[in-house]
Amino acid sequence: MPECIFCKIIRREMPGKIVYEDETVIAIEDIHPQAPVHLLVLPKAHIETLGAMGSEDEGLIGKLFSVAARLARERGVESRGYRTVINNGTGAGQSVFHLHLHVLGGRVFHWPPG
Ligand code: 5GP
Ligand code: ZN
Questions:
Q1: CATH number of the domain encompassing residue 48
Q2: Relative to the CA of 86, which ligand 1 atom is closest?
Q3: 84: in domain
Q4: Which residue has the least CA distance to atom 21 on ligand 1?
Q5: N or C: which end of the chain has fewer CB within 10 A?
Q6: How many domains does the chain have?
Q7: pLDDT, tens digit, 9 for 90 and up, residues 34-49
Q8: Helix (H) or strand (E) segment spanning residue 104
Q9: Which residues line ligand 1 (CB under 6 A)?
Q10: Range of the structural domain that residue 65 is part of
């Protein structure tokens, strides 16, 4: 997927502030942060949406959340609360079609989201 911006960041073909990386998952700072802490946790594999994941990806889905929790703890937002979000499809606000888990913290969040 040469045109995918997240794949390009993973391949170091585009700049990106990488805050975590292992064999299957990477986390970056969001370029337009919507909160004092706004990270994106993504699989290294180009998977477009949650619906494109199969049962073989269940471990990977768990890993995304496990990394998110760890980063939230490290950034000091765990005690006050933080939000994890996956936008799936344009109607839900997805703009980059490489699955990513938003991790937002450091301010108050309202419900329901807009
Ligand atoms: P979505 O709207 O798909 O749920 O979220 C995409 C996110 O990617 C947005 O929050 C947007 O700010 C972020 N984003 C878009 N382009 C780039 C980029 O080139 N680098 C980084 N680090 N984040 C990006
Ligand atoms: Zn991609």
A1: 3.30.428.10
A2: 4
A3: yes
A4: 31
A5: C
A6: 1
A7: 999 999 999 999 999 9
A8: strand 101-105
A9: 5, 16, 28-32, 40, 87, 93-96
A10: 5-105
